[in-house]
Structures are given as structure tokens and as C-alpha cells.
Write a structure and sequence with these properties.
Shape: elongated
Distance between the termini: 40 Å
CATH topology of the largest domain: TIM Barrel
Number of helices: 11
Largest sheet: 6 strands, parallel
CATH class of the largest domain: Alpha Beta
Radius of gyration: 23 Å
Structural class: alpha/beta
Strand order of the largest sheet: 6-11-10-9-8-7
CATH superfamily of the largest domain: Aldolase class I
Helix content: 40-55%
């Protein structure tokens, strides 16, 4: 797993390259400014630590006061204020904002899904449908928005999907093989698409069953058939803000939403400066 500084330094190398030609040409190296980061729409902040770290890695003496990750804000709110060398601010501004806007978008969309299912007792969680190399940050943003994380990668849980089932020869066979290979600390989840597969999975005894692209009626029936069994039921597939409450009201325990990471719109933020 890449650490934060490695990710930021790679982003800076991509953007700055061998130097910020515009800033070097027009901004005196000793110029100072005051900066204010303003929200142009409401949301939930995530990535503020990344934003601040960008300027630290540029060797900045910029001093910031900011709100904390997970806080809600309104359009027109000031999210951060600071002062320091103008050149450093301008060189790091785009990279810092790219991280903050994207991650705040993830947190904001997650919070919207949580609001949509409020009172149902169901959880919203993410998936592995994340931006390559930014999974750590995007999954953290989901938590900032009030959601929960699914497995981080292929290495921290067993999740048997459709192609695994085909390769293993069936639902029961795949669960049996997974149980034999797993340690007592490793969860086993299996994906099913029909109620027939659900029955087969339930008898095989996984920890979790994922109901993939099932209708509301099928999900309600699966919940009914679960009875007192302690298997966790997760619903997934084409989850939208308009549909998610109906899914939660079927009685499933968890809803996984790929959209919170792969389709979250970036939050519109603006950096305003004035000469110090």
C-alpha cells in the first residue's frame, strides 16, 4: 500500500514537473499573501489533511487554520485560511484542490446515501470500484461521510463472485473450498443472483451473502427465508439515491454502493488570495 507522501509527491511530479513556469515568471520569490478556501456548494469535507500536506511537502511556511474532515459545510463557508509565500501556494494549489474536491465529493455523496436510508438500521458501504492508487483516501472519505468500508482489497476477505462460482463448479462447492482455505479470522462472502442460489448459499454457511441485482420482491423474500440465521445480507447493484431507501426497507443489513467512489462529483471549491 502506498503511503500518503508517495501519492502526493507523484501528483506534484505530474503537475509541476521541472518547475512552475508561470509562477517563476510573474511572482517575486519573496512575495507573501493571505489565502482563503471558499465552498461554492454545500458538502462534507474530506481530504483536508492531504490538502495541508501538499504545501508541507513543497517546503512551505504557509500557516493554515481549517475545518476538520467529516464536518458539513454550506455554500459560501470558508473551509481554510492561511498566509505565507505566494509562490508556494500557487504551485501547490491545483494538486491540493484536486485531492480535496474529489475526496469531499466522495464524502458528500456518501452522506446523501446515509440520509436517504435514515432510520432503517441499514449500513451503506463502499466497494473496490475506486480510483487506482487512491483507494486508501477514497475509503477514508466514505467514513468521513458516515459510511462503512467493505474489504480493502483482495487480501483481507474472501468474496466469491459469479466467475469464481463458475470456476469452482457451483455455489456450495465454492463456499466449501473457501471455508477450507480460510483461517478462523477470515470472513467468507458469496454473491448470488437468484433465490435458488440464495438457498444453496445459505445451506453452505458463509458469513455473508451478497444479493446481486435482485428485485425488491426477491430481496424481501431472501430476508424472510433468512429467519434467525445470523448470515449478513448485503444488497448491491444499480443503487441510486432514488432507490436505496426501498432497498434498505427490505430488511437487508448492508447496501454496497460503487457510485460513492466511482461516480461522486467533485465539490466546487475556490482559492482566493490577496497580497499580505
Amino acid at each position: 500500500m502506498l503511503d500518503l507522501d508517495t501519492i502526493i509527491n507523484a501528483a506534484l511530479a505530474e503537475d509541476v514537473g521541472h518547475g512552475d513556469l508561470t509562477t517563476a515568471a510573474v511572482v517575486p520569490p519573496d512575495a507573501l499573501c493571505r489565502a482563503r478556501l471558499v465552498a461554492k456548494e454545500a458538502g462534507v469535507v474530506s481530504g483536508m489533511g492531504v490538502f495541508l500536506r501538499v504545501f508541507e511537502l513543497l517546503g512551505s511556511d504557509f500557516q493554515w487554520n481549517s475545518i476538520r474532515d467529516g464536518q458539513h459545510f454550506q455554500s459560501g463557508d470558508t473551509l481554510a485560511e492561511g498566509s505565507g509565500r505566494t509562490a508556494t501556494l500557487l504551485t501547490g494549489e491545483r494538486v491540493a484542490l484536486n485531492f480535496l474536491q474529489q475526496l469531499s465529493g466522495v464524502a458528500t455523496l456518501t452522506a446523501a446515501f446515509l440520509e436517504a436510508i435514515e432510520g432503517t438500521g441499514c449500513r451503506i458501504c463502499d466497494t473496490r470500484k475506486t480510483t487506482p492508487l487512491l483507494r486508501m483516501l477514497e475509503k477514508q472519505a466514505v467514513r468521513h461521510g458516515g459510511g462503512h468500508n467493505h474489504r480493502f482489497g483482495l487480501f483481507d476477505a474472501i468474496m466469491i463472485k459469479e466467475n469464481h462460482i463458475v470456476a469452482a463448479g457451483g455455489v456450495a462447492e465454492a463456499v466449501d473450498l473457501a471455508r477450507a482455505a480460510a483461517s478462523h479470522m477470515t470472513k467468507v462472502e458469496v454473491e448470488v443472483e437468484t433465490l435458488e442460489e440464495f438457498e444453496e448459499a445459505l445451506k453452505a454457511g458463509p458469513d455473508c451473502i451478497l444479493l446481486d441485482n435482485m428485485s425488491l420482491e426477491e430481496m424481501r423474500e431472501a430476508v424472510s427465508r433468512l429467519g434467525s440465521n445470523r448470515v449478513v445480507l448485503e444488497a448491491s447493484g444499480n443503487m441510486t439515491l432514488e432507490r436505496v431507501r426501498l432497498v434498505a426497507e427490505t430488511g437487508v443489513h448492508v447496501i454496497s454502493v460503487g457510485a460513492v467512489t466511482h461516480s461522486a462529483p467533485a465539490i466546487d471549491l475556490s482559492m482566493l488570495i490577496e497580497q499580505a
